[in-house]
Each structure stands twice: as C-alpha cells, then as structure tokens.
Amino acid sequence: MNDRKPKILSITKMHEAGLGLLREAGDLRMSPGWDDATIKREIAGMEALVIRTQGEITAEVMDAAGPSLKVIGRHGVGFDHVDIPAATERGIQVVYTPGANMESVAEHAIAMMIALSKHFMPSIRALEAGDYFARTRWMGRDIRGKSLGIIGFGRIGKRLGEIAYQAFGMKVYYTDIVDMPASAIERAGGAQAVDLDTLLRTCEYISLHVPLDSSTRKLIDREALAKVRPDCILLNTCRGPVVDEAAVAEALDEKRLFGYGADVFEVEPPPVPGHPLIGRPDNIILTPHNAAQTEESLINMAQWMAEDVLRVLKGERPKYPVNDPDEVAAARQKLGVTASIATADGEDG
Ligand code: NAD
User: Fold this and answer.
1) Is residue 296 among the annotated active site residues?
2) 15 in active site
3) Average pLDDT in the 118-137 region?
4) N or C end of the chain: which has fewer CB within 10 A?
5) DSSP code for 165
6) What is the pLDDT of residue 343?
C-alpha cells in the first residue's frame, strides 16, 4: 500500500475489532443506509466495500463503484446477496469469514432443540400470565440418544454433529452434496452419511446447514415434509428460502411435523402480522436472524474480514476468498487494471 489511504465503504456497523483495523489502514466511510440508491451513490470511487447481511450487491452496484473497486468483504458466511460471477468478471475479489460464527450457530441450533423439546416458549408465557399449574400441560422429551439429521455437513453442520454426539449421545446422520473425506466425528463413530430421503424419513431432529443456492432453494418443500416423522423437530438456522414456510405451517397444523425452530425467514424482515409461523402458541421458536450475534462471533467476523480486505488492498492473496483469486487477477489484467491500489490509481506500476 502506498501513503494514500484506500477508500473503504462500510454499509453497516460492526465490531470495533474490524472497524478499527479498517480505519487505521484506510479512509473508512460509513454509508447512511443500505438501500440500492444509497449504496450506488456512496460506493462511487471506493476501493473496498464492507457488508453484512443487508444490501443487494448486484452488478449495477459494482458498476456504480467504477473500476476502483477491488474487494468486497462479507462479514459472515452466506454470500447469496452478492453477485459473485459479476464480481469475478469485474476483477473484484470477494472475501468472507467461514468458520467465524460456527460455534455460535451450532449452539443456537442446540438451544432451539432444547427449547422445543422442553416446551420453553409456552411454559414461560403461561408462568408470566400467572398460570403456574400449566406446568403439567406439556409432555417434554429428552434429547439423549435421539436421532439428528444434519443437511449440509460443512463447518456448522459438523460442529453441531460433534456437540450433539458428545454432549447428548445423539445418533447423528448427515447428507451433503460433496463426497468428503471422513471427518473427525465420523472416524470416532459419531456420524454417518445417509441419503436425503433416508434422513428425512428417519430422524427425530433435522437441522439445515446448507448455503442458499439453486440446489437448496425450497429443499424442504411439501414433498420433503410429507416424508418426515410426525414427532420430528425441524430447525433452520441457515437461510429462510431453503424452507417453504407455508408448507411448514400446514405440516404443523396437520400434526405431520412436531415442531419448527428458525432463525431465518423466506423474506427478511418477515411480515408481522401476516406471517404463517409467527405468533403460533406452541411447538415453535423463532429468532430474528441473530444466531451469530455473540461477542465471540462478532469479533471474529469483523476482524477476519477486515484483515482479508486489507490483504487484498495490499495486493496480497486473501485467506478466505469466495471467488478464485487467480480468476480475479486474470480479469483485472484483461480489464487493464492490476491488483494494487497504486496501479489502479495510476500512481505507480
Ligand atoms: P459451509 O460452506 O462450511 O457448509 C455448507 C455445506 O452444505 C457444505 O458442506 C456443502 O457441500 C453443503 N451443501 C451445499 N449444497 C447442498 C445441498 N444441496 N444438499 C446438501 N448439502 C449441500 O458453510 P457453513 O459455515 O457451515 O454455513 C452454512 C450456512 O449457514 C451458510 O451458507 C449461511 O447461509 C448459514 N449461516 C447462517 C447464520 C445465521 O446467522 N443464522 C450464520 C452463519 C451461517
């Protein structure tokens, strides 16, 4: 990096662990909003864009930045709101923070599993309403020894499997589109690969940990829900559109599904009133996409992302790339811009 500080736009607040690094090394500006018009206005001439879950980072947004934009830093894991092929074509490196919130999301899924199994939500509401004798109204269940099906056995899925196996002695099954080498948990006999159909039909708990893409959109639809056991508790802490919420509501109404826990929604924020799942009295627990909102995760995400953004701005290889750095570099070369800030500014070679 030369003496001039690179222009960095952040469209959201984040932990000082990351913002501090960006402020020290760059000319950091905070966008007043994340709607399309504001981002397009604020991004002009920026070299780095820093995002969380808000904002749709389309090809048009990237074009509004102009050729100066070299890197988009995603604080978090899912990057379905960033047009990755468009970024690669424009020679823009996208980086993210895989694993930074793994522990938090796995624990969130466990918390939902416990809350639904022990009827926390209606019991708390009854107690607060002075209805102490509701204590015998619900029959809870223990988790120990039950079967857990994990769809998407990546970082979060594997961590959840480990906790479920080690802490609760659960029988862990998983399905994934990638045929991967056996993980530590499998080698220890704590998890077993099965096909999706078997997982849906067998498991007492099913937890979703896939990214949102064309292979996972509405993966859990009416047809999939028709296969699950009536005592099944379904958990979605990955992305709302992976599940057909109307079909989940129907399955709950018809007692073909026991419970549903979700941190994510088909549309965020979800409409209230009017959402088919929000406000139901029983067998449901919903949180406002805050599974990764723990101090530990927020520090990791902000810091890892900032470090990687600065690496790219210095012309170094990122540690956590989303798109292939070689393809990005080739595109930049084709477009007549090189990776370093100095070159893009025309200040030196
Ligand atoms: P990861 O990339 O490590 O794991 C995802 C796994 O899903 C991979 O093993 C992949 O092969 C598998 N997969 C992809 N498509 C599949 C399909 N059609 N069927 C079966 N498996 C498939 O990601 P991760 O860090 O474990 O995170 C998983 C997802 O969780 C993220 O993509 C993100 O959307 C979501 N997430 C949500 C929150 C939150 O705040 N609720 C926080 C972090 C991550």
Assistant:
1) no
2) no
3) 97
4) C
5) H
6) 36
Neighbours of 303 (CB within 10 A): 21
> Which domains are delineated in the chain?
7-99+295-335 (3.40.50.720), 102-286 (3.40.50.720)
Beta bridge partners of 261: 235, 285
88 vs 324: CA distance, rounded Å? 8
Mean pLDDT of the chain: 94
Q: In this structure, which residue's CA is closest to atom 30 in ligand 1?
A: 238
What confidence score (pLDDT) does residue 338 get? 57
**Residues lining ligand 1, Cβ inside 6 A:** 76-78, 98, 101-102, 105, 151-157, 175-178, 209-212, 215-216, 237-239, 263-264, 289, 291-292
Q: Can you tell me the distance from the alpha carbon of 214 to that of 339, in angstroms, rounded to the nearest whole number? A: 31
> What does the pLDDT average to over 276-292?
96
Q: What angle do CA 156, 160, 164 make, to 5 degrees?
A: 175
* Percent over 70 (pLDDT), the chain: 96
The residue assigned the tokens 């470090």 is 307
Residue type, 53: T
